[in-house]
Please model this.
Amino acid sequence: MTNLKIKINDNFNSTPRIAQVEISTSCNASCIYCPRTILRSEWISKFMDLRLYRQIIRELLGIKSVGYVHLQGWGEPLLHPNLMDIINEVQGRVDFGLTTNGLLLNEHYVNRLVSSGINVIAITFAGANPSTHNAIRIGCDFNTLIKNVRELIKVKERLRSNTRVITSYIALSMNIHELPDFVELCHKLGIEEVVIDNLSYILSRGMLIWKAFTDPMEQEPKVFKRIINIALGKAKELGVKAFAYSLSCWELTECPERPTESVFINVNGDVSPCVFLNLPVRGSDIPRCFMGRCFKVRKTVFGNIGSSDIMSIWSNEDYKEFRLKFIKRRSQGYNEEYSINFMPPSQCITCYRLYGI
Model:
């Protein structure tokens, strides 16, 4: 127990290593599964104030452990009218990246982004052909996206840039069959990394039929699993680095959002453990569906940058207690004595991310 306590205390007093900063909650697409589309009447679309952003970055850079900043939350970052000012604040000072729908990755933006030394550009797809992708990611034209990716790769090669270009494929019940073709498409485009994502956030009953994964204690989807394996095999054959999240739920000691070492700062400066616990909607509750049941959970916000600095918020008792639950689980692991003392935070129990999805 002494060693366990030391290990917990070492983590307990740690500082964040990763920061996700939501510079935009606006978007130029209407993907069918996106909370912004489904909660359109309650959604708050805005851009982060540049002064607030500069304050956040100044504080993050003052935390020596922060090694990566991701400039995206629930919106499209390339829409921000001051995007290059935002980039200028971090370039050359910390590793950074963003996730985009790719619509604005035209020659103008691509040259400026790659020249900035950006470390990661992740682009989201939902099909290997126009009809599938366009039906799911409405307003995000597939052919425009392919044209833009080609330009991005061309600029990357011309500038001999080390920018990692990653494609994220949202695997749904109606598009998972196209995964092997998508891997081949990425290879032809010159993309070296593919992440196969799940529809991990379900917020209405109508979305339940779209998920490709199974709920806890359900039998693994054999056909879908076989398709994933075929896609991963093709990636290996073609020399494309590929990763797929599990299609079956298995409780993890800590979710992939890594709340013990990462922090999410939303468009208003609210500080939360992750993007899934603070959607930009009116009110204090957010919808969620888990194992066929739909309900609401309270937003989890531990403070705001406008009234306190990041490290003071990170160190407050409620936030420390939230992280300590994961730290205990990670240190102890699973055994026959698993008890309520090693339960995750209550708001995470019904989140599919905790189960590796």
Summary: Residues 142-158 form the longest helix (17 residues).
